[in-house]
């Protein structure tokens, strides 16, 4: 296939390129909303994409989580035991469904993950106001399938980490100066499709419900 | 004149159910897009920026591809180059054999359609399963996609209900869209969990970081690129952008132009296989970069714009031809205006040149294109390539040239620059206008369904003279 590489590249390189179009990269993201407005917009956008949003504080979020689990009759919930959120949940687990930990490589328990887990709780890396989007940087503690396979995904987000736009988020968080994770995810609602008659239906292959707790 | 395309177009026009389904969905897509760009000034500035991003990337294509390759390899993603679709198919097969895999689960990928991957793998004993809801419907019906974004838009819920019932007899018959989607969910879940290899397309490749971006709503693209131990991504070489900062503007204009959404449910940015100590994600990630004529298109500065396309589908949603004949009538992988310029360039004007006539040159496609591709101009250019005398970089150039037609146009051209002859010929034509009426009524398919315009009894020159109006 090295032949193919050289053929393709040499063909491309023989083409004549005239003056390129000037590209000014700093023009587009000029909005700068107040933090209140950002939170408000983030909420409206996510709600219009059929996500459930809960307002909470540093102290009340655990109760909110309990309330969500009870309202949805969840029998179990997958979480990371090592994040600060996970540690807090484990300490206050009396009113919560059975806690499950992703402590084994997926190969060892894929079937259970696909069939037996009802919900997963994850933290987020930030949020985007103008599109109503959660940013996730899955890692060894919170693997990427947590936000994909269980039918309910509950995510917690700090209001202080909500940015105006995607363009601003990746600048403010210095994405291009960091070693990127294997998989970055932008999530803007529960899984959906409009492939039949352009009519929306939710919960196709990913989570059927996305629940966001803002603290 | 009956040709392959004209026969096919006539057939398509007679399929009323398909036409109704197509029209109803493109109307919805247009409405959604319009609502997504409420502010004309903002649309103009977004579009200008996106156009510049794509033009910049295209102008540096070979350098960016090399940079992309270096960064992907540094991140642990294996890069394969394929000059032809055969090479690309063979690469997929080799990877499958290396992993001893006989089953592959697929997310939506127009490039894999271009490769004819499913048929190829089937002949080698490998089973392929489409997991995007629209693509699954198409696969169950043994058809081809009729739209890039909504592959099954030519089918309505009743047809899909009958299809699902015949394919999954254990599921009760239903015309409820959400029940149909849930049936697909149940059917595919087990396959996501057990498939040895997953394959997806790519929306953008970021040279700066070595990252593949996938945009989708259902989560099947995430499943295919996360759950199986091996992930193969296939992409045309033109999908590269220079840096991370180029992604947000393109992403925003892509999803708005395609379906009117400010963003899709999932944007999946893949930069490496599973890292040490990580508990999931594929342990091997491959990217296949397909050329298949793209570097040839690249050699022509005017045709090169074709490669800026971000596959949003807006041009087909706004095309009066597409709306009436639907995607299948084009008999190409990519239908609509972008298909009209891309497919003849890829596959040759000898077999696809006539497709360039499937346009009224109304210009709607260019007007809605988020990256300002001058589709009508390229259509005109290809029409000329189709009938030109000398050869050029586009295969099949000159194949549509007919001697009589060429002679008639030559006479016409000569006539137009010789006023004496012109005046004599037009006045002869006017005096024999009854005969002309009869000829016109016979020779053109246009007049078969329309009144023939009558020639006046005096020429314009004669009338002006009578009115004593001079040339000026
Ligand atoms: S040509 Fe323009 S409008 Fe058509 S699919 Fe490509 S980007 Fe979209």
Q: How are the SSEs placed, and which strands pair?
A:
The complex is a heterodimer of chains A (215) and B (472).
Chain A: H1 2-14, H2 35-48, E1 52-55, H3 61-71, E2 76-79, H4 84-91, E3 98-101, H5 110-116, E4 119-122, E5 126-128, E6 133-136, E7 152-157, E8 162-163, H6 166-172, E9 183-187, E10 192-193, E11 201-202, E12 209-214
Parallel strand pairs in A: 1-12, 2-3, 4-7, 5-8, 7-12
Antiparallel strand pairs in A: 5-6, 6-9, 10-11
Chain B: H1 4-13, H2 16-36, H3 40-59, H4 61-75, E1 78-82, H5 85-98, E2 103-106, H6 110-115, H7 117-123, E3 127-130, H8 133-140, H9 157-167, H10 177-194, E4 197-200, E5 204-206, E6 211-216, H11 220-226, E7 230-236, E8 240-241, H12 247-259, E9 266-270, E10 284-290, H13 294-298, H14 314-317, H15 320-325, H16 336-347, H17 349-352, H18 364-368, H19 375-387, H20 403-416, H21 419-431, H22 433-443, H23 445-448, H24 460-466
Parallel strand pairs in B: 1-10, 2-3, 2-4, 4-7, 5-8, 7-10
Antiparallel strand pairs in B: 5-6, 6-9
Helix pairs in contact in B: 2-12, 16-19
CATH topology label of chain A? Rossmann fold
Could you tell me the mean pLDDT of chain B?
93
Percentage of residues in strands of chain B: 5-15%
Question: What is the average per-residue confidence, as pLDDT of chain A, rounded to a whole number?
Answer: 94
What fraction, in percent, of the residue positions of chain B are helical? 40-55%
* CATH architecture level-2 label of the largest domain in chain B: 3-Layer(aba) Sandwich
CATH architecture of chain A: 3-Layer(aba) Sandwich
According to DSSP, the number of beta strands of chain B is 10
Q: How far apart are the first and last residues' alpha carbons of chain A, in Å?
A: 52 Å
Give Rg of chain B in angstroms: 26 Å
First-last Cα distance of chain B: 43 Å
* CATH superfamily grouping of chain A: NagB/RpiA/CoA transferase-like
Domain 4Fe-4S ferredoxin-type (chain B): 299-330
GO biological process, one term (chain B): lactate metabolic process
Organism (chain B): Nitrosomonas marina
Keywords (chain B): 4Fe-4S, Electron transport, Iron, Iron-sulfur, Metal-binding, Repeat, Transport
